[in-house]
Amino acid sequence: MANDVQAAIDAALTQNWAEAVAINRELLKTNKEDIDTLTRLAYAYCQIDETEKAKKIYKKILTIDRYNSLALKNLNKINSLPAKKLNLIHDRVSPGLFIEEPGKTKVIVLINLAPSKVISQLNIGDLVSLFPKKHSIEIRDANKTYIGALPDDIAFRLLKFISAGNTYLTCIKNIQKNIISLFIREMTRGKKLRHQATFLPTSFKEYTASIQREIKRSVITEEDSVTDANQDESEE
Fold first, then answer.
1. pLDDT for 42-70, tens place per residue?
2. H helix or E strand, kind and range, residue 92
3. Which SUPFAM superfamilies does the annotation name (predicted)?
4. pTM of the model
């Protein structure tokens, strides 16, 4: 079940909406009232212009949780926008940028999160920005609204690289209750630290596992990718 949920999230991250729909519909066969799965499915329908199906699902969510802010927000958005402007995607990165690369990418869980009313406005895949402070780094959305902050150890390292001229792409990878995961990719390096990787693997095992996953992703078919990724995890 956990692997299927992650597969659904990964499909959304890579904007493979047809696959996202299929996986989430399959998950609903196990639990027809799982709000997280319903939310992902409704959002995926919006991206392929199946807005009537999305509206039906958002209404179902509200029968389960009448105060669900995300369902209320997106249902209101669907009802208020012109028919030709119903796509709910915000600024997003291209699918290829989500591929993990040792040293260049990292998934980080944010700390000191903003209130839930702010978090509820976010979507998986949204572009966000790093706002360096003297001893910390804040994460803010396109409107410069505060979302959360990087853990101190990561912030300390990134401050050094940013001051040296490195640039980074950051986006929302996952959203759960009281948890936001951020995907960070090193885009360019400043001259001072051009020979240093931003992120270091915590172990040799982690490094080799990442390499193996990327090799598999480059040669296996899309149909088999979820299965092989699950096998990699079990081997670890």
1. 988 887 888 889 999 999 999 999 888 87
2. none
3. TPR-like
4. 0.52
